[in-house]
């Protein structure tokens, strides 16, 4: 095999010159140990490239003064791992690159076949490459981490802290677990926002990591975090994001689709997202149920409603539900945008206002008026927000926002003033 390797290096298919020289030489010249010490670089390179060269010879040649010989050892799949470790620290960048490329191929094909002892040597090689001064070498190790769940987490975190985003980003695609404290540190010191986004994409992010990503104030990273449905985002952190969301339109849809969204958060979102997204909020069935409407403020205001079960007009249906105590916020929400006559009748019954006053408020497209109407009817701010979107079609800038706790932004006195104002616009006989 070594004779064949020599003839290939001399560029001949037939080993005529080399074979003749070897045949004429003493038998001791055929000893691979002697060939490995040949003064001819080409001969030593042939031994280094031969797949049947003994491991001890390859380890010996890994220290050869000629880069061409060491390169041949680096390319050789038969090279023992402790020789690879030597070459991973070589002064020649191309040789270290060859080792990184060979390690990548080997781990993809045979990584799980290694014994514990061999794996420890492999880890030493990977660690040396992960600390290489060439980003291109570190990148090759980072790419290995992206597809190898057996990669030691210490190497992954070393690469994740890399100052070069092209190295850190693929490393953070590592499929195994990375401790939250490590991820928090990476986010805190990331020199490039792409690194923060790479952390935000990781599966099963903990609450503290999510909070740190939001703290980074990077819009794209926060959008990526919101899209990560497996990330745990504490309510207080999500509330802070919603506060800033009106000016970040790309956050709106992932916010609307967040799992475990609270009713308070949904109420605030409905005040500024597009109508399409508001409809998505309305269609969600996993939100906490709206609080029950409080009893009428004045018990003397309770009136008897005559109900006919045969009356299927909007007013008849509203009266029937009112009489049975089923004129709920959810029922009214479902009718928004599709049955305005029912909405007017329902709100009139609940608020004790004339239908003409309710209609006047609706057609006025007044955010404050609609908010006061929902309040007067005993419903929550969530319905007031939906009414602004579904009934008045108000743009986000014109809508009235809830408080941070999801309650009404106006005082009772201010809302009573709104009601009295619209009552004054309707003639007494109507």
Order of helices and strands: HHHHHHHHHHHHHHHHHHHHHHHHHHH
Largest sheet: none
Which word captures the global form? rod-shaped
What does the oligomeric state look like here? single chain
Provide a count of the helices.
27
Low-confidence stretches: 8-28, 289-309
Task: Walk me through what this model shows.
- This protein has 430 residues and is mainly alpha-helical.
- The chain contains 27 helices and no strands.
- It has helices at residues 2-9, 16-24, 32-35, 41-49, 55-61, 67-75, 81-88, 93-110, 116-130, 135-146, 153-160, 165-171, 180-188, 193-200, 207-215, 219-227, 235-244, 252-256, 263-270, 275-283, 314-323, 329-335, 340-351, 355-364, 367-376, 381-390, 412-424.
- Helix 4 runs parallel beside helix 6 (67-75).
- The longest helix has 18 residues, at 93-110.
- It is rod-shaped.
- The termini are far apart.
- Residues 8-28 and 289-309 have low confidence and may be disordered.
Q: Keywords, please?
A:
mainly alpha; 59% helix; single chain
Question: How do you describe this structure in short?
Answer:
With 430 residues, the chain is mostly helical. The chain has a domain at 299-424.
Topology summary:
Elements: H1 2-9, H2 16-24, H3 32-35, H4 41-49, H5 55-61, H6 67-75, H7 81-88, H8 93-110, H9 116-130, H10 135-146, H11 153-160, H12 165-171, H13 180-188, H14 193-200, H15 207-215, H16 219-227, H17 235-244, H18 252-256, H19 263-270, H20 275-283, H21 314-323, H22 329-335, H23 340-351, H24 355-364, H25 367-376, H26 381-390, H27 412-424
């Amino acid at each position: 095999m070594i004779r064949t390797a020599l003839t290939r290096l001399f560029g001949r298919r037939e080993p005529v010159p080399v074979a003749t020289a070897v045949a004429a030489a003493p038998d001791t010249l055929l000893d691979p140990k002697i060939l490995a010490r040949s003064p001819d670089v080409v001969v030593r390179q042939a031994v280094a490239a031969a797949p049947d060269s003994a491991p001890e010879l390859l380890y010996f040649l890994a220290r050869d003064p000629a880069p061409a010989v060491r390169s041949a050892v680096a390319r050789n799949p038969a090279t023992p791992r402790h020789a690879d470790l030597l070459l991973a620290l070589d002064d020649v960048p191309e040789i270290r690159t060859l080792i990184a490329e060979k390690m990548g191929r080997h781990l993809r094909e045979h990584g799980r076949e290694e014994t514990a002892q061999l794996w420890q040597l492999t880890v030493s090689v990977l660690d040396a490459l992960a600390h290489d001064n060439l980003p291109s070498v570190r990148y090759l190790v980072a790419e290995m981490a992206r597809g190898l769940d057996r990669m030691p987490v210490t190497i992954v975190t070393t690469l994740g802290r890399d100052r070069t985003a092209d190295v850190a980003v693929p490393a953070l695609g590592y499929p195994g677990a990375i401790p939250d404290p490590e991820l928090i540190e990476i986010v805190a010191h990331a020199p490039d926002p792409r690194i923060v986004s790479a952390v935000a994409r990781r599966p099963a992010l903990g609450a503290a990591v999510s909070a740190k990503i939001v703290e980074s104030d990077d819009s794209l990273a926060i959008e990526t975090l919101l899209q990560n449905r497996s990330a745990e985002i504490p309510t207080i952190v999500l509330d802070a994001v919603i506060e800033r969301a009106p000016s970040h339109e790309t956050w709106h849809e992932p916010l609307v689709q967040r799992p475990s969204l609270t009713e308070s958060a949904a109420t605030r979102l409905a005040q500024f997202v597009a109508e399409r997204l508001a409809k998505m909020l309305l269609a969600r069935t996993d939100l906490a149920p709206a609080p029950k409407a409080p009893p009428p403020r004045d018990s003397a205001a309770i009136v008897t409603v005559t109900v006919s079960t045969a009356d299927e007009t909007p007013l008849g249906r509203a009266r029937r539900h009112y009489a049975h105590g089923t004129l709920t916020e959810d029922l009214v929400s479902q009718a928004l945008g599709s049955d305005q006559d029912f909405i007017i009748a329902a709100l009139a019954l609940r608020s004790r206002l004339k239908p003409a006053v309710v209609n006047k408020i609706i057609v006025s497209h007044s955010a404050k008026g609609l908010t006061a109407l929902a309040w007067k009817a005993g419903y929550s701010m969530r319905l007031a927000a939906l009414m602004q979107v579904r009934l008045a079609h108000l743009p986000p800038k014109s809508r009235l926002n809830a408080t941070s706790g999801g309650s009404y932004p106006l005082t009772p006195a201010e809302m009573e003033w709104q009601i009295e104002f619209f009552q004054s616009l309707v003639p007494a006989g109507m």
